[in-house]
Design goal:
Chemotaxis Receptor Methyltransferase Cher, domain 1; 7-stranded mixed β-sheet; single chain; alpha/beta; about 270 residues; 10 helices; Rossmann fold; globular
């Protein structure tokens, strides 16, 4: 297995598996060796390293925190898109509409593995429609600084617009012209309402407040069961009593927590303590 002139040994791959697990809780399967070599091989070339061991020693030396973060970015970036698993957003609309008539304070939603922002901006479109003039807030967090920078820009290739309902596309997205042709920009009124912050699910940042809804979708498939339990335990305190916790369609919290009760497949509720 090569990257440029560098071979990766099983022992070297195991070092990176252990490192990314310690930092992000991600279990990198043996099948991800090609992905790791493809993404980190360019960094070896950048620094002029001949082996993955040299790069490993460099990023773990404490000399270059930015490169360690860069490594994390390269190994944790996940695919996402607008209105992924649309039934979750239909449910979010239901909750927001109910909150408008009977809730108090701003309706707060956390996209806890926001990647490049499509999920958070989908939430924003839904809440803008459902709540109209009522207050709402969205926080998007991710461990990767690179994807957060993309998210904050809210600027995407036009092909990413697949899945956005036409009326939302007209109302909340600006189609690029001239040098920006082939792109779309999320409207400023939505970008201003979504806050993106770096946070590690293994040790979430303090001061986020509590949320009516937390989305943690399509990320726990990369965790082992012990890590899943820890992550859910870390996030539950940020959820209001009777708030809702949403996971991906291929994920389940069964056997992982007693703090949340199933409401419907992939959707859980934090009961009020009596």
């Amino acid at each position: 297995m090569t990257a440029g002139n560098a071979d990766i040994t099983s022992a070297e791959f195991a070092q990176f598996q252990k490192l990314i697990f310690q930092i992000a809780g991600i279990s990198l399967s043996d099948g991800k060796k090609v992905l790791l070599v493809g993404r980190l091989g360019k960094r070896l070339k950048h620094f002029g390293f001949g082996t993955f061991t040299q790069y490993y020693r460099y990023v773990t030396s404490g000399e270059d925190a930015a490169e360690l973060q860069n490594m994390v970015d390269l190994l944790t970036t996940n695919e996402t898109y607008f209105f992924r698993e649309p039934k979750h957003f239909e449910f979010l609309q239901e909750l927001a509409t109910k909150h408008k008539t009977s809730g108090s304070g701003p309706f707060r939603v956390w996209s806890a593995a926001s990647s490049s922002g499509e999920e958070a901006y989908t939430m924003a479109m839904v809440l803008a429609e459902a709540l109209r003039g009522a207050p709402w807030e969205i926080v998007g967090t991710d461990i990767s600084t690179q994807v957060l920078q993309k998210a904050q820009r809210g600027h995407y290739p036009l092909e990413r617009a697949e899945g956005i309902p036409p009326e939302y596309l007209r109302k909340y997205c600006l189609k690029g012209v001239r040098e920006q042709a082939g792109t779309l920009l999320i409207a400023k009124e939505l970008r201003d309402r979504v806050q993106f912050l770096q946070s590690n699910l293994m040790d979430p940042r303090k001061g986020l407040g509590q949320f009516d809804v937390i989305f943690l979708r399509n990320v726990m498939i990369y965790f082992d069961n012990d890590t899943k339990r820890k992550v859910v335990s870390n996030l539950v305190p940020y959820l209001k009593a009777e708030g809702h916790f949403v996971v991906g369609h291929s994920e389940s919290l069964n056997g992982l927590t007693e703090d949340l009760v199933p409401l419907r497949p992939t959707i859980y509720r934090r009961p009020r303590i009596k």
